[in-house]
Design goal:
mainly beta; 59% strand; 4-stranded antiparallel beta sheet
Length: 120
């Protein structure tokens, strides 16, 4: 079974930091773009940051300078380092990836989500 599994969410005070991790597992031939999205209560799911297989990145304006996305291709993992967190960063964060899976072709997968709460 091919899946994305996130970890690293939790409760943090404003100004604090968290690091999210996402691991892709299964019979994977290759991983293309990987990204983090977030969804706050009552709002749509929005792109936070994305990274290509060539390490090109892009960020939502609201997180530029505070968040850093990175990946380790050999481990099929993507990370999101979040610094200077604000209450408005509170959301469920989802990992997203485009994968080539042996026997199944090109797929888009989502993780189950991890909750980040920024509150004093």
């Amino acid at each position: 079974q091919v899946q994305l599994v996130e970890s690293g969410g939790g409760l943090v005070q404003p100004g604090g930091s968290l690091r999210l991790s996402c691991a892709a597992s299964g019979n994977i031939f290759s991983v293309s773009a990987m990204a983090w999205y977030r969804q706050a209560p009552g709002k749509e799911r929005d792109l936070v940051a994305a990274v290509t297989s060539g390490d090109s990145t892009n960020y939502a304006d609201s997180v530029k300078g505070r968040f850093t996305i990175s990946r380790v291709n050999a481990k099929n993992m993507v990370y999101l380092q979040m610094n200077s967190l604000k209450p408005e960063d509170t959301a469920v964060y989802y990992c997203n990836a485009f994968l080539t899976v042996v026997g199944r072709g090109y797929l888009e997968l989502w993780g189950q989500g991890t909750l980040v709460t920024v509150s004093s």
